[in-house]
Amino acid sequence: MTVIESVAEMREFIAQVRQQGKKVGFVPTMGALHEGHLALMEEAKSSSDTVVASIFVNPTQFGPNEDYDAYPRTWKSDIDACQKIGVDVVFRPHVADMYPQGWGTWVSVDNITEKLCGQTRPGHFRGVATVVTKLFNIVQPDRAFFGQKDAQQVVVLMKMVRDLNMNVEIIMVPIVRDPDGLAKSSRNIYLTPEQRTAALVLSRSLLSAQQMVIQGQRGCRLICSEVQDKIAEEPLAAVEYVQMYSFPDLQEITTVRDKVLLAVAVRFGTTRLIDNMILEVKE
Ligand code: PAF
After folding, report:
1. For ligand 1, is residue 14 a contact (CB within 6 Å)?
2. Phi then psi for 17, rounded to 5 degrees?
3. Closest Cα to atom 2, ligand 1: which residue?
4. Which one, out of 112, 167, 206, 251, has a CA that is 20 to 30 A from the CA of 9?
5. Which backbone phi and psi does 57 adopt, to 5 degrees?
C-alpha cells in the first residue's frame, strides 16, 4: 500500500494508473475509520482495479462551534485498517496543500442543502461539495463510494455530479450497524456508556416506523410524530429533527409513496448523531 501526502504526487500516481487503463474506485473519508468505512472500501475493491482512500479532516465543512479540533484523528489504526482491507493508495493531504493561501472558490448545491442537517449546520454541505470536488479533480475516480448514514450528503453529491457534468459515478452503500442496532459513526466514541445505551432509541424508533408502514400507515406527519415521541421518552435524548422526504430528490411529501427517506438527528449530551431508513412502498 502506498501513502501519498501531496496533491502533486497524487496526480502523478493517478496519471500512471489511468495510462494503464485501470478503473479507479475512491473512498473519501475523514479518518477515524470504522466498519462503515471498511464496507465502502470492500465495495470499491469489488468493482475497481485500483482503490484510493483519502483521509482528510476537512475544515471547511465544520461550523465555528463544531468539533473540527476535537474530531478523532486515529492515523495509526486507520492506516492499519486500510492495509488490512487491501486499499492500494491512502491519500492524506495537508490542509495547506488543499486550501493554500489565497484559495477562495466554493461549490454550492442549492435547495436540498437547506433542509435536514442543512438547517442547523449552515455551510456544511458547501464545505463537503467543495472538498469532494477538489478530491475528485485530484483522484479522478471512475466511481466514488459513500455511506447511506449520510444520506443527504449522498443526494447532494449525486446532484453536484449531475449538475456539473462530472465524470464519476456515486455509489451509496447501506448503513453498517453494531449488533444492537447503533449505526456506526466516528462520533460514537464520544458517547458515555449511558448515552450509548440511550442512543439505541434511534434504530428502535426507525424500525417501529418501518413496522407502521408495513402495517399500512402512509401519513408522514403521524409517522414522524410517533418517532419523535418515542425518542423523547429517552431522557438523555434531545431531538433536533425527525423528517421525511421523497428519496432521492428530497422533496416535501405528506404520504409515503415509492421511496421515502425517514431521517433523524438527535443530541446525546454534546454528541450529535444522525440515522435514517429508506422506506419503500410498491403499490
Ligand atoms: O463523509 C465524510 O466523511 C465527509 O463528509 C467527506 C465525504 C469525506 C468529505 O470530507
Report:
1. no
2. -60, -40
3. 29
4. 167
5. -80, 105
Does the active-site annotation cover 124?
A: no
Domain-ending residue, one of 117, 138, 173: 173
Ligand 1: which residue has its CA nearest to atom 8?
29
Q: Please, which pLDDT band fits residue 282 given cuts at 50, 70 and 90?
A: confident
pTM > 0.90: yes
Nearest CA to ligand 1 atom 9: 128
Domain-embedded: residue 178: no
Write out the residue range of the structural domain in which residue 143 sits: 2-173
Question: pLDDT tens-digit profile of 46-62?
Answer: 999 999 999 999 999 99
Query: What torsion do the CA atoms of 25, 126, 224, 188 make, to the nearest 10 degrees?
Result: 60
The owner of cell 410524530 is: 225
Same domain, 166 and 54: yes
* Residue 131, ligand 1, Cβ within 6 A: yes
| AA letter at 175 | I
Is residue 223 a part of any domain in this protein? yes
CATH number for the domain harbouring residue 64: 3.40.50.620
The pLDDT tens digits for 169-211 are 999 999 999 999 999 999 999 999 999 999 999 999 999 999 9
Residue 5 in grid coordinates: 501526502
Residue 215 grid cell: 402495517
Closest ligand 1 atom to Cα of 29: 8
Query: Given this model, what pLDDT does residue 103 score?
Result: 97
Q: Which of 153, 170, 173, 187, when mutated, tests ligand 1's pocket best, judged by the most ligand atoms within 8 Å of its CB?
A: 153
Q: How far is the CA of 31 from the centre of ligand 1 (A)?
A: 9
Cα 227 from chain centre: 22
Q: Does 154 contact ligand 1 (Cβ within 6 A)? A: no
